[in-house]
Write a structure and sequence with these properties.
It is built from 13 helices and twelve strands. The protein is of the alpha/beta class. It folds into two domains: 132 residues, 3-Layer(aba) Sandwich (Rossmann fold), CATH 3.40.50.720; 191 residues, Rossmann fold (3-Layer(aba) Sandwich). The longest helix has 19 residues. The structure holds 1,4-dihydronicotinamide adenine dinucleotide.
Length: 334
């Protein structure tokens, strides 16, 4: 089958080509994101392969349908960027990679916490400049701190286990509490209680109508003075303006984000020679207690191998007319 891969980077090519070895599909790579205008690049393909910020709204899906594309193979777990209902109406199958390496994202959340708490990003730059001063590098111990989680699915569960290893107390909120975590000592509470008890709050829930802007002026107001907020899930879980206000007022002590509400205009490309036309992110970039990474939580060798392998399996299942548990259905959205 011919596959048009959008938003492709060098690492996508490397891992997808490797995974395609035994399948022998014909793959064409496009660096541009998939949207209504770029969809026509997929002419002649039977499937498209898309990533987190590709806009698979009704218009894009209609353009793909016109080209007789029968499958959108997402090389990610989240599907909030796809109009699943429209895809169902048009008979376009949507498949995803439900799990690859939850460790990759959980460990990245921990990396953000440790960098912020021990200021290793500042120390690295200082020492490279022969500045061996320790002024303003005072950090804090993680031991005995309370870590709050919103979402204790695959990633949240692993994150909770790692933070317990540091000697943290874990409080969590999830629609479906996990018995294994309860037995390990995780205390399930209301979202409000988790916000108010956490020294470090980490978001591990999907973006849904219920969770959109779950971090806002009201919930930030419930948080401890100087608390840390970590978001490796989806940018729109946070109201960025409210977070900027909370940072200014020193209510929020630290912010570590791997995702940003308006990231599709910025992330995954080199804009170092451009003027960044996004006041909120440029403001955030000036705060000394804010650490931003550009959606790299998934970017480990192990995760890329899993993503590429499952994506090729999904495409091959589609080509062979096989059913799969990796289909995204309208029931899942409901
Ligand atoms: P998962 O589906 O295993 O777990 C999500 C958990 O959130 C579930 O336990 C679910 O019950 C809970 N949840 C749903 N709605 C909720 C609500 N209103 N309040 C509280 N909890 C709620 O998903 P997984 O694999 O753990 O991934 C979590 C998120 O991480 C994904 O949705 C995605 O947005 C993000 N992600 C980020 C990546 C990155 O590179 N930064 C890579 C992969 C995923």
């Amino acid at each position: 089958m011919k596959i048009a891969v959008f938003s492709s980077k060098a690492y996508d090519k490397e891992y997808l080509n490797q995974a395609n070895g035994s399948w022998g599909h014909e793959i064409e790579y496009f660096e541009v994101p998939l949207n209504r205008k770029t969809a026509k690049l997929a002419t002649g393909a039977g499937a498209v392969c898309a990533f987190v910020n590709d806009k698979l709204n009704r218009d894009t899906l209609a353009a793909l349908r016109e080209l007789n594309i029968g499958l959108v193979a997402l090389r990610c777990a989240g599907f909030n960027n796809v109009d699943i209902e429209a895809a169902g109406e048009m008979g376009i199958r949507i498949m995803r990679v439900p799990a690859y390496s939850p460790h990759a994202v959980a460990e990245h959340a921990v990396a953000l916490i440790l960098t912020l708490s021990r200021k290793t990003h500042k120390a690295y730059n200082r020492v490279r400049d022969a500045n061996f001063s320790l002024e303003n590098l005072v950090g804090f111990d993680l031991e005995k701190k309370t870590v709050g989680l919103i979402g204790t699915g695959k990633i949240g569960q692993i994150f909770a286990g790692i933070m317990m290893g540091f000697g943290c107390r874990i409080v969590a909120h999830d629609l479906y509490p996990n018995d294994e975590l309860k037995n390990m000592g995780v205390e399930y509470l209301s979202a409000e209680e988790v916000f108010s008890r956490a020294d470090i709050l980490s978001l591990h829930c999907p973006l849904t109508p219920d969770t959109a802007q779950i971090v806002n002026s009201k919930t930030l107001g419930m948080m401890k003075q100087g608390a840390m907020l970590i978001n490796t899930s989806r940018g729109k879980l946070i109201n960025t303006e409210d977070v900027i206000t909370a940072l200014r007022e020193k209510k929020l002590g630290y912010l570590g984000i791997d995702v940003y509400a308006e990231e599709e205009k910025l992330f995954f490309r080199d804009l170092s020679e451009h003027i960044i036309d996004d006041e909120k992110i440029t403001q955030l970039m000036t705060f000394p207690n804010v650490l931003i990474t550009a959606h790299q939580g998934f970017l480990t060798r192990e995760a890329l191998t899993e993503i590429a392998g499952t994506t090729m399996q999904n495409i091959s299942d589609f080509a062979g007319g096989k059913i799969s548990s990796n289909d995204v259905t309208t029931e899942m959205v409901a």
